[in-house]
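To whoever picks this up:

The nightly regression suite flagged ABC transporter substrate-binding protein as changed. Nothing in the input moved, so I suspect the structure step. Input below, exactly as stored in the fixture:
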Amino acid sequence: MKSTVLRAVLTSSLLASSVLLGGQAYAKTLVYCSEANPETFNPAIGTADSTMDAAAKTIFNRLVEFKPGTTEVGPALAESWEVSADGKIYTFHLRHGVKFQSNDHFTPSREFNADDVLYTFNRQRDASNPYHKLGGGAYEYFNALGMGTLIDKIDKVDDYTVRFTLTAANVTFLPGIALDYLSILSLEQTEKMVAAGTPELIDSEPVGTGPFVLQAYVPDSQIRYAANKDYWRGPPKIDTLVFAVTPEPTTRVERLKANECQVAAPPPPSAVADLRTDLDITVLDLKGQNIGILGFNVEHQPLGDVRVRMALAKAVDRKAIVDAVYAGAGAVAGSVVPPAQIGAVTDAGIDYDPDGAKTLLKEAGHESDLKISLWAMPVSRPYNPNAKRMAEMIQAEWAKVGVKAEIVSFEWGEYLKRTAGGEQDAYLLGGSSDNGDPDNMLSYLLSCDGVKGGSNRSRWCDPAFEKLLQDGRVAADPKQRADIYARAQAILKVEVPVAPIAHSVVAIPIRKSVLNYVLDPFGRQNFAAVDMAE
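Regenerated output under the current build:
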């Protein structure tokens, strides 16, 4: 019944896109078939791509942003900046005349200024900030990427100038603040919603400075946005944007073909060849910026024993998984670091060796008694298009070496929350790079700060590895950084907090009626400049 209702709603939306007034198109609607509900509409407390697509890229802006289709940082809410000679002080000059959006509960009385920048950062970095605990007070990205220890202080020079002082020079700082989780929030909205006793509206009915205004959200169904007519870059070309929440990949393909949506989250790899033959559809490819992993929670025994982790990794036939799950759109991973990035190596994966796995398990005293949970994602993600199938294959492989695995899954937001809390034994996850730098993936998945923040779901903290991460953030010479990250990957191969499984080629299908769509190098969706053919 829900599917029938949703199809009717989407059909109505599409009809609205072709209403004419005086021979001219009166309204344009674009429907995007997304893969999951957002966890929240506040990027600061979210982690999933579904959250960043539905919130950060639509409702908000950052101080600086990646230029469309590139990994190059450009101006956004900060129109310019200077860096001190020692690389420790960044002074940002903010854009004038930028308006925050309005909604039923909030109408801004002022424009964007330095107070909103300080609020956005200080809420996350300062536990004594009066708003730090809002929304649960868990800032996974901020903590995982070390922003709290990197930023020494933030000063408001005047209403349109902000100065960041770092504890040390850091070559990842500028691309780091371009990440979606550092979308600039409205201090005034927070103050008014807290004073009114409705702080939850900050996360469920947000206002930003971005291209679209949130109108309505029905979980497991759709999200509707209207174009922000006051957007500082100019109003979007489309009047209405709809996210049709469609977790089943084959259903997304059906809806795309039927023109019920015009852009879709990645289809199952087996459907890509057929989509390429459709004269009304273009398939765009993104290579080399993600990793699918099998992780081990080292705080759950006996996974704290490296012999057990290595044995479980050796028992997994990664090539068979890639053949079955990625269907020609993936490659066996040589490392956690995606191959397109500086310092990536090809020999840090764990080779298939079931006999070696049995030997290690016997040495560790678990020849036939090991029982663990294997958590599998409930959604199709670019780095893992079918986690359930992958889990079933791993379960069968582990059974061959005497290990019994129980497959566990939850709704996507719950899955992320519970794994961040460390409930899992082994787990399937991964990620797409946010900025094309190896520090991003390694720090988010495996740093000591990530253990505290929840992004390091292996709960593994290694001083030697952590030192290399710190060295990589300071080194400016690309050759030196490549060597640092090669050594970091060598540690991962020995310690096995995660076993790299595959890098995938991400396919994004769009209908040819969609104009000006630019493929994001990190697999996110940005519809600010998109138009529809009339």
